[in-house]
Amino acid sequence: MKDSKDTLEALRAEIERRNPAQPEFHQAVREVLETLAPVFAARPEYADPAVALVERLTEPERQIVFRVPWQDDRGRVHVNRGFRVEFNSALGPYKGGLRFHPSVDIGVVKFLGFEQIFKNALTGLGIGGGKGGSDFDPRGRSDAEVMRFCQSFMTELHRHIGEHTDVPAGDIGVGGREIGYLFGQYRRITNRWEAGVLTGKGAGWGGSAIRPQATGYGSVLFAAEMLKVRGESLDGLSAVVSGSGNVALYTIEKLQQLGANPLTCSDSHGYVVDDKGIDLALLKQVKEVERGRVSEYAQRRGTSARYVQGGRVWDVPADVAFPSATQNELDGQDARTLIASGVKAVSEGANMPTTPQAVRLLQQAGVAFGPGKAANAGGVAVSALEMSQNAARIAWSAERVEEELARIMGAIHAVAYETAERYGAPGDYVTGANIAGFERVADAMLAQGVI
Ligand code: NDP
């Protein structure tokens, strides 16, 4: 075991040297490699230096960086940078979202693409891993500006994607509106009705029922599975949720359907705590219809809600926590606060929202911790179901998709749980999810030769 640990440590150091100034990518790689020592010890073929499996797995198959010029409503030209990292296609076409946020750079896209490989493998479906986006900030931009940006972005991206090649979807800053503009431009340039080239499309033009809900619903279903193992349920529990975007809204919705009481939501300016529980219809009106801030929710809600400028949503005591905004939003201090308030479970709706120190503290305290690779895989799983519906030119009912989502989340929980047990780390879903995802991709890569 010591030998495989040393090998992995040397590989990690070399990956960091070759990819300087990409801290999020380093963090994602370190987190995976730290859990692989037992599988390297048990399956020496993975560690054979002659096949360089880890070196290949951590090097994207292709990285595309491009200029995105666009004109604002006053006629001024702006230049953003576009990215698509096609990380691994051993299990199927590259699959993963597009993120539009000022913090996006190549390191962020690589971290997200790397995580996506294992997440997609865990779903059991035939999808590889990729990710993309731009440093464009859609907040405060008019619909016409967002449309012009999306058209310019797709004018380059269309060369690289396709239903059998690479299938993007949404992520931060990319929702139904943006997918619509991107799809329109793809169709115009290629003169093809290729519905399977993007997922997250609208109902009525190739979108799947339940896709907007899938990530948030899945994260709650994963938490329910973790609690079930401990003989508990979400019914009657209070919850803290961060974020107020796609994932957060549908996390709140599913929590309410299962009898829990979500008390909070947030954005990058502050958070809201609502003693009566979040009024989801009002929050959707503010966020989805008016594209406003959570402070406006508090103003309109009445005395039960207050808005805290800045501050940490994790300061609100609750039974379960759902980080659903962005990476590294829950740190060691936040974990201590949650543990002190008696939190039972944390389920990551966002990608890598919990820092490594916070994960360690939560696990040491016996909190059930669902890592994003497993807990937020419901979104990409339903995206894969959207691809299946597109290929067959049919649309499934919402009931059928939701049943499939519940089945897939149950299966992901089971494989992460059982793999952790098999490798001597009972209850450690981080280890279980990393190893189970890794084994599936690694076996496919070994079978397919040196690619
Ligand atoms: P949205 O753009 O719909 O919402 C993002 C939310 O997070 C907003 O409330 C936003 O606030 C907040 N946020 C974003 N960046 C920051 C920041 N730097 N600091 C504080 N708050 C921030 O995105 P999604 O809901 O789609 O995505 C949320 C997370 O879930 C991401 O980590 C994403 O990768 C992950 N995810 C999403 C999936 C999907 O299907 N959409 C699938 C799997 C994972 P503000 O408006 O102020 O920026």
TrEMBL record:
- A GO CC term assigned to this protein in UniProt: cytosol
- Supply the name of the protein: Glutamate dehydrogenase
Q: How does it assemble?
A: Homohexamer.
GO BP term, example: glutamate biosynthetic process
Tell me, what's a Pfam family for it? ELFV_dehydrog
Asked if the keyword Signal belongs to this entry, the reply reads no
Q: Which CDD domains match?
A: NAD_bind_2_Glu_DH (cd05313)
Site feature: Important for catalysis: D171
Which intervals hold domain Glutamate/phenylalanine/leucine/valine/L-tryptophan dehydrogenase C-terminal?
208-449
Record: residues binding substrate: K95, Q116, K119, G170, S383
Asked if the Swiss-Prot or TrEMBL record annotates the protein with the keyword NAD, the reply is yes
